[in-house]
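Worked problem 6 (solution included).
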Amino acid sequence: MPAASPTPPDRKRARLTLVLTVFLDLLGFGMILPILPFYGQEYGASDFQVGILFAAYSASQLVFSPLLGRLSDRLGRRPLLLASIALNVVAHTSFAFAPSFGLLVAARALSGLAAANIGIAMAYMADVSPRAERSKAMGLLGAAFGLGFVLGPAFGGMLSFVSQIAVPLGAAALALVNLALASVLLPESLSFEARRDAADGRWFDVQRLAAVVGDVPLFSLMLLAFVVTVCFAMMEASLALFAQDLFGWGGREISWLFVWIGVLIVGIQGGLIGVLVRRVGERWLLNAGVAIVAVGLLVMAFSSRPLHLLVATGLLAVGLALHNPTYTGLLSRLTDDASQGGVLGLSRSFSSLARVIGPLAGTALFERLGASAPFLWGGCLLLLATLAAYWIARRAVVAVERREAAEAEG
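Solution. The predicted structure is:
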């Protein structure tokens, strides 16, 4: 008999299980991310080739996020999540034993394919959360991401004392543990009826895509998040190179810098975001998030001491922690239940495209215009985006209120 969606008493358990699954997934990702530029340098990679290493991961997400999201609408969230976790075991192991830079890039691309499950995780969280609580629920998911960034770099930094290859092998072992736990604990969240309705649609529905593009509040939110992610990814790929150039830092120092970022994200998304949504509102949180990221990038551009870098990354963490769950919650509330996987998968594609463009642009600017260029350009671009965010957030909140009022009347 097909699995039904969890009954209301099971929603809390389902959310907690998903948070655990996402945390373990991001823990492995967080272990590798800080050492990635230095790992690439071991293979003789230039600064721009380090950008390619970052971009390969996101390029796979770009291609596969909509496909996996739509597939999860048809087959259910659970089988796709389990398959992607299993693929992560293979990807991290391949990364550890890659004999050349080209195969190192291929292993990162394979890991990116597995990480295309983020949209599915978001859709799962939407399945098991009432509409009014989705920004808060997405905040819990964001907290799992943040906690992965707290402990992942710390674990990776400790394992790097053993050997460099121990870091990706440790990530592979974590993915194996995650697969075992998810196989036992993770229930299906999508009802048989919803899967059947989704199966009647096309794999690539041009009309559905046109409807998303034509939905001004929905599409504007995606474009805003795209710009924020491009600027953040420019920073992400250039940060280790910047700190290495200015302060002589290596993988261990960068790992602890990511721990600092993760602590702030967890603190905000794990507890404060729900309170802030109630007291301040999603509209103003979205605006504030974009503005704070812009200021953080500009502070980083003019950093000359490690303390400046701590302040800059702190601002970036706070801004992202406010923007991301608010954006995802609004996006989910603007989408009907049968299309959650497809729309959130499409949003992940926008994010992945941004993470392809951002590292390539950031490392190119770093090579050609100097160490501060990626942050200066990104900060200025986001200052302009802050002006647009005021209008975009207002339109989105009004559209959500109208949609939910109409559903209540119906």
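Discussion: Residues 8-185+203-409 form a domain with the Growth Hormone; Chain: A; fold (CATH 1.20.1250.20).
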